[in-house]
Structure to design on (516 residues):
């Protein structure tokens, strides 16, 4: 089977024009079929402030009322996604922007209200790869933002890490899938305060031990859960590192395995 | 050759939730390959006001500075386009949203500055149909908003009527193309003040005569120029009418021919 790379780039890189430009130029040189998934960064919060829409975060997660969903859709699927697509085109990478509604690629259910009502937030239920593989077969690169839909006309805000891992799982029936998370650090750190303490390899056993010892930063835990879930569902390889890891592996980064 | 319908829906319908919902439901029932092109409506102007970005229109055309381009990208490619795609999915029409940057489908040049500097406005230079036909072959319907790009990373604001006619011309090499403009009237009017004065058929000769007699409303003239340009470049048929014309032709509408 051919190998596909699903590459997620985090919000801190999206927020930095120079870093994003460099990343997109490197992404364009990645050979073979590939998919980009991007986070949202701070632009949505800025627009909400400009529009006097209250920003409500609980444990780092955005409560998404109807106005906030509009803002997210405008910023993620509009401004960020389309500028990334235009930049990739200028780098001769033929890209098409996606939400999960496009091509009915990612179907979610609105998160049930328990203690907290997250509003228009979607938990992924199903991935349909038909549109994606048709484009990949024509050397076209899908670029996903962090929005899905419920098949009943409702867009839903969805975690970008989860979108990347669910796409990777869905595509693992057709490809060897390699899932790469790019963020501002060089990999998963053994000691949160020491950027040089990158863990090279981490299997499930090591992960569970380190988790019990509270090794990981709060934001890293759900990312790692996503990664091991992806590995257990057929994804071949998961890598976490800084953006240069997509074109150059003569450096530190973390490889996860079961 | 198979027939494809390129259907443009105007801003007045976009601005009216009930009318849009009805239109999208009808659009979903149109058989065979089809493409939707949508205008922007008044939402971009509203957002500009919310964000204190000055709105500058000359002869009904928006002067597009960098802030305005951001707003247009957010509203057209984000909020409007993605909600249309989600609605079409709920009607079992498998749609994918496009700007001209996506799939490198519509390449424009920034309009040269003469008397007026229109800013980031693009005049269409080239249409690439590869991504579109790959999707159409998989029963997927492209949905275009009125944004193109210059292949150098710059998005450009582009007239939606022009996008529809240029797509129709580009696709006329692969399909019999039928171009349908839907707006709030029943067709081209012989007398601007009489909604019942719909012209049934109009060839180039009649058009030129009526133009000299100042028959047409200001907004209608560039639309008609687009239409005759499309016909002269290989488009089989151009129809102008209200939205129901896409599924029901037992009513008044205007057919244009050379």
């Amino acid at each position: 089977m051919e190998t596909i790379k699903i590459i997620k780039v985090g919000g801190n890189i999206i927020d930095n024009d120079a870093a994003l430009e460099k990343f997109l130029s490197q992404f364009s040189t990645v050979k073979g079929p590939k998919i980009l998934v991007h986070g949202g960064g701070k632009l949505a919060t800025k627009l909400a402030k400009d529009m006097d829409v209250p920003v409500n975060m609980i444990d780092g997660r955005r409560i998404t009322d109807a106005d906030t969903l509009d803002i997210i859709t405008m910023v993620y699927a509009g401004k960020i996604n389309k500028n990334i697509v235009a930049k990739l085109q200028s780098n001769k990478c033929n890209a098409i922007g996606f939400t999960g509604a496009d091509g009915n690629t990612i179907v979610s259910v609105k998160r049930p209200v328990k203690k907290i009502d997250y509003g228009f937030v979607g938990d992924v239920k199903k991935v349909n790869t038909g549109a994606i593989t048709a484009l990949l077969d024509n050397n076209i690169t899908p670029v996903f933002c962090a929005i899905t839909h419920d098949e009943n006309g409702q867009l839903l805000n969805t975690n970008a890490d989860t979108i990347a891992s669910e796409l990777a799982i869905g595509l693992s029936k057709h490809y060897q899938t390699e899932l790469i998370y790019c963020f501002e650090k060089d990999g998963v750190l053994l000691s949160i305060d020491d950027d040089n303490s990158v863990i090279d390899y981490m299997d499930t056993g090591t992960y569970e031990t380190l988790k019990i010892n509270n090794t990981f930063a709060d934001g890293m835990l759900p990312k790692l859960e996503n990664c091991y879930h992806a590995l257990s569902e057929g994804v071949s390889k998961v890598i976490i590192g800084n953006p240069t890891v997509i074109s150059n592996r003569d450096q530190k980064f973390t490889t996860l395995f079961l």
In short: Chain B has a mean pLDDT of 95. The radius of gyration of chain B is 17 Å.
